[in-house]
Amino acid sequence: MSDNPVGMRDGLAVSARELLARAAAAELRAYKGLMVAVEDFFLPEEARLDEHSRAGLAALLRGLVETVEGEIREHAVRLLTGRGESALVVALIEPGVSVLTRLWNFGLLRDGDLMAELVARVRQEMLGAALPMNAPDDPERPSLINRFVQHPDRVVAASAMAVLIAESRRRGSPEVGQFQTELPAELHHRLVWWTAAALRERFEGANEALDRALCDAAQRSLAAYDEGDRLEAAAMRFAAAIDAQPGELSGMLVEALGDRRIVLFIALLGHALGVPYALARDLVLDPGADRLWLALRALEIGREGVAQIGYALSEADPRRDLEKFADTLDTIAAISPAEARAALAPLKLDPDYRAALIALQRGGMK
After folding, report:
1. Spatial distance between the Cα atoms of 133 and 254, rounded to a whole number of angstroms
2. pLDDT of res. 5
3. What count of other Cβ atoms lies within 10 Å of the Cβ of residue 209?
4. Cβ(280)–Cβ(330) under 8 Å?
5. Low-confidence ranges of the chain (pLDDT < 50)
């Protein structure tokens, strides 16, 4: 063991001033870490992400950022190569701190809209994967979406096929080159520019050639992106194409859950209610589900349909209380559709107006 109490770095003694600065920084990091731990401790259990959700969220975030990074880097390298900027090409492709790490460290990934979308998507996929698989009465009968692929109405058939294609794309992965962000357009726009900026941040000083290549690559990514290709958008178009009537809707909703197609269930619900997909998703993912029961009654879903839907969702989501649902089923069924529609009327207000009202309510809770 060395008797020299002075730290060495690259053969040079670390100055006392630097040691003091590092110690101060360590104290600040320790304090911030403690505050995060305290905040986490006081979170209500229902607001805390479980380990499965955290792992899914981390994997999704990594996939999104790495996909966008790969697109921008690859095209920027191609542009720089064509423009004779070989030194920049080498610097851009050499390993370094990842874009994900940069965005994380700079706090950009704490964006509320982005994280709300990703958390909802992870919970949606977990709920869909955990739904009980119901065997059809007729084993040879195709699933709901597959039946409509063969529909004589070409619009309906095409929209059903679009859902199947979007499902396949959603299941893709960055490793096989089929992964896409599938974010709402505004969030994809933010992520693209953040990624381009994070790639640029590796380089010091002004560099017009690099800036131009990264901007061109980012704009190419934005131009190629079509929000309408998202699975959720395809499902909403399908729901609009079939336009399930009151006598059909209950069976379709139950069958969509039986097929473990949670996105289709949400789309059918959202179209029938006349609300955006994201709002219908909020109703379905809420473990309390009070608004969902009102929505089902507003759509004149009877007691049996509500029971089947409530049971399936309770089986799939451990946060839900099946016994409590069973105890309130008669109360839910007793609510008239007119009463339920009146209670849900605020959901159909202008989304920006509703967002402003919610923002004021949040401010009043401080």
Report:
1. 11
2. 44
3. 14
4. no
5. 1-12, 176
Residues 6 or more apart whose CB falls under 8 angstroms from that of 349 comprise: none
Distance between CA atoms of 313 and 320, rounded to whole angstroms?
Answer: 8
What is the maximum alpha-carbon separation in the chain? 86
CA distance 362 to 109: 22
DSSP assignment of 286-349, as one string?
A: -SS-HHHHHHHHHTT--HHHHHHHHHHHHHH-TTS-HHHHHHHHHHHHHS-HHHHHHHHGGGGS
List C-alpha distances in Å: 221 to 168, 190, 224: 21, 12, 5
Compute the distance between CA of residue 76 and CA of residue 192 in angstroms, rounded to an integer. Answer: 13
The residues that bridge with 8 in the sheet, in sequence order, are 13
pLDDT of 13 reads 55
Q: CB neighbours of 19 closer than 8 A, spacing ≥ 6? A: 7
The first and second tokens of residue 159, run together, are 């929209």
The ranges assigned to domains in the chain are 14-42, 52-118+182-225, 255-366
CB 242 within 8 A of CB 148: yes
- Single-letter amino acid code for the residue at 310: G
Residue 8 host element (H or E): strand 8-9
**How many residues are given for the chain?**
366
Q: Is residue 92 within 8 Å of residue 140, measured between CB atoms?
A: no
Amino acid occupying residue 195: T
What is the spatial distance between Cα 366 and Cα 360, in angstroms, rounded to a whole number? 11
